[in-house]
Specification:
Blueprint (H helix, E strand, L loop, with lengths): L16 E2 L2 E2 L5 E4 L2 E4 L5 H19 L10 H17 L2 H4 L6 H19 L3
Antiparallel strand pairs: 1-2, 3-4
Length: 122
């Protein structure tokens, strides 16, 4: 993977050999739980974490119905202890990517969903 922030097209066909075998070029890499792409846009990381949190929120929603199940305090504790750490893991690395509207909107959808579930609203 060639990492660059340049707008112009780079020569990405660089052959690197290890033990006389060419290494495969990839567009993104998962390093310590953060998905890094070749342009340092972090779009794939933001999409992956939002999908992961949405799945978790829907699983928790099954145990927190309007008239029974987990109460607001328990849901809020789960939000602070499970969902926020997933969303904010490695934030100092990718926080500049949140300047884009599409990335903000992705995380806003997750926050909206979890707030609706905590408030037990519709």
């Amino acid at each position: 993977m060639v990492i660059t922030r340049r707008k112009r097209r780079e020569n990405k066909d660089v052959l690197i050999y290890l033990n006389n075998k060419p290494l495969e070029q990839v567009n993104n890499i998962n390093y310590l739980g953060i998905i890094i792409d070749s342009k340092l846009k972090f779009r794939e990381h933001i999409t992956h974490t939002s999908r992961k949190c949405t799945t978790l929120i829907h699983a928790l929603a099954k145990s927190a119905k309007l008239s029974w199940g987990l109460k607001h305090e328990a849901l809020n504790t789960i939000h602070k202890g499970a969902i926020l750490p997933i969303l904010l893991y490695g934030a100092p690395v990718w926080i500049d990517a949140m300047e884009k509207k599409c990335n903000k909107a992705t995380y806003s959808r997750v926050q909206r969903l979890v707030n609706i579930k905590i408030a037990k609203a519709y």
